[in-house]
Design a protein that fits this description.
Fumarase C, Chain B, domain 1, Ribonucleotide Reductase Protein R1, domain 1, two-stranded parallel ribbon, binds arginine, arginine biosynthesis
């Protein structure tokens, strides 16, 4: 075993070893740690510390580790970095003994986490774009499907279901540059930082960075080993993604309830009650809705753990990393299942159209009175309010309409019952919407088309980037 006695006389207490070990969450970075060590071996060979043939043999042994069952309960070894060194020591003690020359676990762990995070961000982006594309597909399909919008959870204005899914596509798409930003924070290689202040061992750190797919070498060893803002950034991104999904999920729960009956979720994403046979519970959307709280918890705990850290590496930093993996797991899974929910949800067209019917669009009457008759909007608004009251009480007819208009100093013939019906008919209302950001079906269909094209292009970029990095890393384990 690669035993590091250091200055200590006693072995670490078993309970203390387990308590302080990161092994149980190091599974996530095994592959990345192998790559980091392979790059380091090559740098050692380049510097003449080990021979190229030793290097090649050692890299092959490291590659074997990816196909082995690793025992993650050897807590006395502390972490995956020592497991790797220990394994190499069992095969090539001389080469293994050089593995920590000019390299510390403090720089190695950041390198490995950045390498793994790059991959995880790519798959998060793919999942996010998957949901975006599903939302946009529904936006095109349902661009004409009337659906009410609410403010204060009171019926506000007629719109379409496509308009609503388009709004979520935009909300999610706005997170994409953020994913790229977080990705850019994983581009500087920490190798060469060693434990905290750099190293006198003159290894070619640009070479190491290049082998591992980093685009540059970090500027400062202390910053590289002791800062975790790139993780906080990723966690904040995850929390915000969960926030958007939470609102979408809440709408699925709410609008599929017996009280609204505007949406119907697929049976395959619902469960029933163990006692009440009539129940159809929107379980997937409920769990998705609550992930926002979980993600904020992961973000806020990591944030607090990263704060008030003195100078260089402290073991507190180790405890932050599992929050990151957990958050990415949760977000990716949620994005994927929500794509299924959005794909499968059906609109109850009759009920949705009814919810858009008069007096929902009564502002159209006020707009008409103002634009056509030059009535000050506030005055027209008051008259429209009185008309909406009549509608709600089922007392609107030619006579009461005329009389109401006159009560507000508007010519009684300004609008007939026939014209009013036309004005407020929801299908016509949405087609009359004129601003570019409105729920006008033609605009939504056009935007959904353009945006899908954009999303597909982004998807290709991420896939290509994943392929590029994957190939680079695999090459590292190929012939030296
Ligand atoms: N396992 C640690 C981590 O995940 C790296 C090891 C740092 N340990 C140390 N004694 N400096 O952050």
């Amino acid at each position: 075993m690669a035993h590091r006695k250091g200055r200590l006389e006693d072995r670490l207490d078993e309970e203390a070893a387990k308590y302080t070990s990161s092994l149980l969450f190091d599974r996530e970075i095994l592959e990345a740690v192998v790559y980091v060590n392979a790059a380091h071996l090559k740098a050692l060979a380049r510097a003449g510390v080990i021979s190229w043939s030793e290097c090649e043999e050692a890299v092959n042994h490291l590659a074997d580790m990816l196909r082995m069952d690793i025992d993650y309960t050897r807590y006395e070894l502390e972490d995956i970095h020592m497991i790797v060194e220990d394994y190499l020591a069992s095969k090539m003690p001389k080469a293994a003994a050089m593995l920590s020359l000019g390299k510390s676990r403090n720089d190695a762990v950041v390198a490995a986490v950045k390498i793994r995070l790059r991959e995880r961000l790519i798959s998060m982006a793919e999942a996010l774009l998957g949901l975006v594309l599903t939302l946009l597909k529904r936006a095109s399909e349902e661009a004409d499907t009337l659906f009410p919008t609410y403010t204060h959870l009171q019926r506000a204005a007629p719109a379409t279901f496509g308009f609503i899914t388009h709004s979520y596509a935009i909300r999610l798409m706005k997170l994409l540059p953020r994913i790229k930003h977080t990705y850019s924070l994983c581009q500087d290689s920490p190798l060469g930082s060693a434990a905290v202040a750099g190293t006198s061992v003159g290894l070619d750190v640009s070479y190491e960075a290049e082998l591992l797919g980093f685009s540059k070498v970090c500027e400062n060893a202390l910053e590289a080993t002791a800062s975790r803002e790139f993780i906080i950034d990723a966690l904040c991104l995850c929390a915000e993604t969960a926030l958007v999904i939470s609102c979408l999920a809440e709408e699925l729960v709410l609008f599929s309830s017996e009280e609204f009956q505007l949406l119907e979720l697929p049976d395959s994403l619902s469960s029933t009650s163990s006692i009440m046979p009539q129940k159809k519970n929107p379980v997937v959307a409920e769990v998705a809705r609550t992930k926002a709280a979980e993600l904020l918890g992961l973000f806020s705990s990591a944030y607090l753990m990263a704060a008030r850290q003195p100078s260089g590496y402290n073991l507190d930093l180790q405890q932050i990393t599992p929050k990151l993996w957990k958050a990415l797991d949760e977000v990716e899974e949620t994005l994927a299942i929500m794509a299924k929910a959005v794909e499968g949800v059906k609109v109850n067209r009759e009920r949705a159209a009814l919810a858009c019917s008069p007096p929902t669009a009564v502002v159209e009457l006020a707009n008409y009175l103002t634009l056509k008759w030059g009535i000050p909007f506030r005055q027209a608004h008051n008259a429209a309010a009185a008309v909406s009251r009549l509608m709600a009480e089922n007392r609107l007819n030619e006579e009461s309409l005329k009389e109401t208009l006159e009560r507000y100093n508007i010519p009684g013939g300004a609008v007939s019952m026939e014209q009013l019906r036309e004005l407020l008919e929801p299908g016509k209302v949405v087609r009359r919407y004129a601003t570019p950001q409105s729920a006008n079906p033609d605009k939504i269909r056009e935007k959904a088309g353009v945006m899908s094209y954009e999303a597909e292009r982004e998807l290709r970029w991420f896939k290509e980037e994943g392929r590029r990095i994957g190939e680079k890393l695999r090459n590292l384990l190929g012939s030296s």
